[in-house]
């Protein structure tokens, strides 16, 4: 212990005597460790952290994800998992579970007004859940009470539970909220409790629920759009809590057999689809997987990006460690005479190595502490960048205890790794040679490890620069592609759907008045309404062509469906290529018409003249429902990376008198719009108050969720790609700077060691240019070797991130050339200063040094 105290005291004294070295090493480590810790904080929260519930290890996902469980809607159904009738049957067929809860797969936006106030309704994100939802997770309420089975009955009084965050931020932690009446979608609900702090629901998503409603209240809220009793409508996900000690090994096979039998006899599929259903049965699996970390919506969305960032950070950390190792090697060489004296006086090599390791570990720990401070700020910046379009994010912008432990362990590990080699090399000094002076030597073997580290830094830097260049170039291609619609002077309005209690004539009147009000606002050129606007939502249905029989249940038979008002396509700047657009003449008494896009014509009509052709949705009996009257230019509404999907635009004022009750419900639901677009004559400045006033005058229950420019709406679709490109670019620049510092240190050290040699050369007639060329040749030799190693690695890494790139090849000559030039410029700047210093050496003074 006494020896350890002596080593620490000596290390602190040496660090105090060399403040520039200490600060440089600490800052280098702080940036490397801080960046890595910040990214690991996100990975821990998004990918690894368990739900804040009781005993999460006993929670199991009934159907791990959409690709593993194709219970409804055919393969790769990405809307929901099971219907409510199927959930009830599953709950009774799995005795291994003590509880099984169902919840809405996609949360809804509710218009909520506190009953006793006259304030404007607030949009709250909500979720329908079963009465045992909170008890399945082993949770009670923070205040009031949670749901019970009695609350989830058709005859029960409507009740709701607020999230802790909504209670705090929207209602100021007012205790009188509990027991008060809230008007949700026009219906009174009593708030019975506040969910525990930190509980964001069962799904880690960028916008977690703010209010929970019992599943049995869904028909009252959604009216004719209710899904509760529809056997064929898969819209619920299921999590079960296993009984203590239950054997789960055979549950998946048992429930899979049950589901296959249910699909054939009780699912409610139309008879014409049953042969396809029977054919698809071998592909249907109900997998039971651990659900302690909840439903992985955010893990699936951000997993690849986080893996890229953690790889980038790891490379930066390696470069930082190599840089500090270079600094320690240089300092160890500078101390060689001191070390030789200590060896000559009897100090053991073991003691010298331990002393050197103690100093390097202490330095790394101090750098790690500084890195934790960097990580705190870094997490906040990354969360703000990655989720800038989100209303609320269930991610704590501070490193947790496991993350802090990770940072501390990383500090110790790096200290040992980059301290071992310098410690060993320093202890290998020959006392006689060091005391005699080594500056006569033209070869300095002790600088070889430093040069190797510079080569490694150069190689890793080119990998990071090339990766950042590819991602930045891909982002530019995404942002500047032709989406098929105009964004200039377009304003997008995201709204809550009208109340489900509206009748069809009331909806028609509401939409006419709303569009008229918006069209006549000052500064508005035109206005259009739609079921959804680009990159907000998507409705897909099977297309049935007249005379072609029942469609196959696959993606190629599917098309996106959007209902729009007259003038919407013109407002969006989507030109009609053939026929006409949706117009005022397309009323509920006129024949049902549709406008399709170019992809629809190519896919379903094989480029035949589409005007006058008929088609329908889902069932063969509907094949003459719509007549095509126009073709609009392709536009991307759902996925900016893929070619435009097949799209059908239907008049907002028209309805189809389907015979099938489920189709009638579908048709009714498509008339509850969520978006509007304005084409402005000039700036959008001052438009928001006018828009909100127009909405409130038409219907106070029409809640506006967001008003933004169409360009902002498009850019929000690239938030994830933007943060990855920005962070990778930032780390690439950091790596470049660190590599330049490392090259500068080695070159300056080499010049110092070769002072005598340079003096002799100049005394024999070498001029300044010859000396500068000599130094630069030595410096750039390391860079060239680094490039020779790094460029093939960059090409290989480009292939690994190819899935993240858009219209950019994994091997891009422009990106590689730019990266090489950037590294070359930094290398020139880093080596020219020592070269100039070498060229300024006075030969007489250099020779006198010996």
From TrEMBL:
Residues of the MacB-like periplasmic core domain: 22-256, 455-656
Record localization: Cell membrane
A Pfam family: FtsX
One MF term in the entry's GO annotations: transmembrane transporter activity
Annotated InterPro entries: ABC3_permease_C, ADOP, MacB_PCD, Macrolide_Exporter_MacB
GO CC annotation terms, alphabetical: plasma membrane
Keywords assigned: Cell membrane, Membrane, Transmembrane, Transmembrane helix
Residues of the ABC3 transporter permease C-terminal domain: 314-431, 730-843
Transmembrane segments: 20-43, 308-329, 361-387, 399-425, 452-471, 730-751, 779-802, 814-833
Membrane topology: Multi-pass membrane protein
PANTHER family: ABC TRANSPORTER PERMEASE YTRF (PTHR30572:SF4), MEMBRANE COMPONENT OF TRANSPORTER-RELATED (PTHR30572)
Record-stated family: Belongs to the ABC-4 integral membrane protein family.
Protein name: ABC transporter permease
């Amino acid at each position: 212990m006494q020896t350890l105290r002596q080593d620490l005291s000596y290390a602190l004294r040496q660090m105090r005597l060399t403040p520039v070295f200490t600060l440089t090493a600490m800052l280098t480590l702080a940036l490397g460790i801080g960046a890595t810790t910040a990214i690991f904080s996100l990975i821990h929260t998004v990918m690894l952290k368990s739900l804040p519930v009781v005993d999460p290890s006993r929670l199991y996902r009934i159907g791990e994800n959409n690709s593993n469980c194709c219970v409804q809607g055919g393969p790769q159904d990405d809307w929901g998992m099971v219907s409510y009738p199927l959930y009830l049957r599953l709950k009774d067929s799995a005795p291994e579970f003590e509880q099984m809860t169902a919840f809405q797969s996609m949360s809804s936006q509710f218009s909520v007004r506190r009953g006793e106030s006259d304030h404007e309704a607030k949009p709250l994100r909500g979720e329908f859940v079963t009465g045992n939802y909170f008890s399945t997770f082993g949770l009670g309420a923070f205040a009031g009470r949670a749901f019970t089975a009695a609350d989830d009955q058709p005859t029960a009084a409507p009740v709701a539970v607020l999230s802790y965050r909504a209670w705090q931020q929207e209602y100021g932690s007012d205790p009188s909220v509990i027991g008060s009446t809230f008007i949700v979608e026009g219906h009174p609900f009593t708030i019975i409790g506040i969910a525990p702090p930190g509980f964001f629901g069962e799904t880690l998503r960028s916008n977690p629920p703010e209010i929970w409603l019992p599943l049995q209240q869904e028909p009252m809220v959604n009216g004719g759009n209710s899904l509760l009793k529809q056997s064929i409508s898969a819209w619920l996900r299921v999590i079960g809590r296993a009984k203590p000690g239950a054997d789960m090994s055979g549950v998946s096979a048992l429930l899979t057999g049950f589901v296959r039998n249910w699909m054939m006899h009780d699912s409610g599929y139309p008879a014409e689809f049953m042969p396809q259903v029977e054919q698809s049965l071998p592909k249907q699996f109900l997998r039971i997987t651990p659900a302690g970390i909840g439903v992985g919506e955010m893990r699936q969305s951000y997993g690849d990006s986080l893996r890229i960032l953690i790889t980038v950070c790891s490379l930066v950390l390696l470069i930082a460690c190599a840089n500090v190792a270079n600094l320690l090697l240089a300092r160890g060489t500078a101390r060689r005479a001191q070390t030789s004296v200590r060896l000559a006086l009897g100090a053991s090599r073991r003691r010298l190595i331990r002393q050197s390791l103690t100093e390097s570990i202490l330095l790394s720990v101090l750098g790690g502490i500084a890195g934790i401070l960097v990580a705190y700020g870094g997490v906040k910046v990354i969360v703000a960048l990655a989720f800038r379009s989100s209303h609320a994010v269930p991610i704590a912008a501070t490193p947790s205890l496991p993350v802090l432990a990770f940072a501390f362990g990383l500090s110790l590990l790096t200290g040992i790794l980059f301290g071992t080699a310098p410690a060993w090399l320093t202890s290998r000094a020959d006392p006689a040679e060091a005391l005699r002076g080594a500056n006569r030597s033209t070869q300095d073997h002790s600088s070889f490890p430093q040069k190797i580290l510079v080569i490694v830094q150069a190689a890793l830097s080119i990998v990071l620069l090339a990766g950042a260049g590819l991602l930045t170039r891909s982002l530019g291609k995404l942002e500047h592609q032709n989406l098929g619609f105009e964004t200039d002077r377009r304003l997008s309005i995201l709204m809550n759907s009208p109340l489900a209690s509206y009748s069809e004539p009331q909806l028609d009147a509401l939409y006419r008045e709303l569009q008229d009000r918006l069209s006549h606002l000052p500064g508005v050129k035109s206005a259009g309404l739609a079921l959804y606007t680009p990159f907000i939502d998507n409705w897909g249905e099977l297309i049935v062509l007249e005379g072609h029989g029942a469609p196959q249940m696959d993606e190629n038979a599917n098309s996106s469906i959007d209902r729009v008002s007259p003038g919407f396509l013109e407002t969006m700047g989507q030109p009609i290529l053939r026929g006409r657009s949706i117009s005022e003449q397309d009323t509920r008494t006129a024949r049902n018409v549709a406008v399709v896009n170019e992809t629809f014509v190519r896919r379903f009509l094989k480029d035949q003249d589409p005007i006058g052709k008929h088609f329908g949705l889902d069932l063969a009996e509907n094949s003459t429902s719509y007549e095509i009257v126009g073709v609009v230019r392709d536009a991307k509404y759902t996925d900016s990376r893929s070619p435009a999907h097949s799209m059908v635009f239907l008049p907002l004022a028209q309805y189809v008198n389907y015979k099938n009750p489920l189709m009638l419900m579908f048709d009714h639901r498509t008339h509850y719009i969520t978006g509007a677009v304005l084409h402005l004559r000039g700036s959008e400045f001052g438009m928001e108050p006018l828009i909100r006033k127009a909405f409130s005058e038409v219907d106070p229950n029409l809640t506006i969720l967001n008003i933004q420019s169409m360009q902002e709406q498009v850019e929000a679709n690239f938030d994830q790609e933007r943060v990855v490109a920005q962070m990778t670019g930032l780390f690439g620049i950091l790596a470049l700077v660190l590599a330049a510092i490392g090259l500068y240190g080695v070159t300056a050290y080499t010049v110092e060691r070769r002072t005598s040699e340079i003096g002799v050369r100049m005394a024999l007639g070498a001029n300044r240019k010859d000396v500068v060329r000599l130094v630069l040749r030595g410096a750039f030799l390391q860079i060239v070797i680094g490039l020779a190693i790094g460029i093939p690695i960059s090409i290989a890494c480009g292939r690994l991130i190819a899935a993240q790139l858009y219209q950019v090849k994994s091997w891009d000559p422009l990106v590689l050339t730019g990266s090489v030039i950037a590294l070359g410029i930094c290398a020139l700047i880093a080596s020219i200063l020592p070269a100039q210093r070498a060229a300024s050496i006075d030969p007489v003074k250099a020779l006198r040094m010996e």
